[in-house]
Amino acid sequence: MWDKLVRALGAGRVESAVPRRELAIAVLLVETLRADFAEGEAEKVAARGILRELCVLDEAASAALLAEAEATVRKSVSLHPFVAELNAVLPAEDKRELIGGMWRVAHADGRVHPGEEALIRRVADLLYVPHHEFIRQKLASGPA
Q1: How many CB atoms lie within 10 A of CB 68?
Q2: Model's pTM, two decimal places?
Q3: Are 29 and 50 within 8 A, CB to CB?
Q4: Scanning 16, 36, 64, 120, which has the fewest C-beta atoms within 10 Å of its C-beta?
């Protein structure tokens, strides 16, 4: 009986419960570009560039990963699985670079929306990035 219930509940799952590293990074970048409720092309271009840098991808692969992340975000209800994946695999330096990348996406349209800053602050806390690094990355990414 228990096996039938487990199979019935798990039958619709296509992917594992824990996302891969690259998708987790892309999801956080997509969440950043969506945080101001206006997904501009400049932010998408910035996100693709950051994916190329952080994940060492070519243009086509970064565009495909960004599209996959956008679809994942529409279905997702929490950042927890993505942050947990990154905490498990990323060293501190890569976490700082990711926070810097999120800031670059936020600055890409010329202004930082309070929702973008709140999201980046929350992710930095969840990734155990010290506050001084959060601020350093903010200042290094564009005008304050």
Answers
A1: 15
A2: 0.83
A3: yes
A4: 16
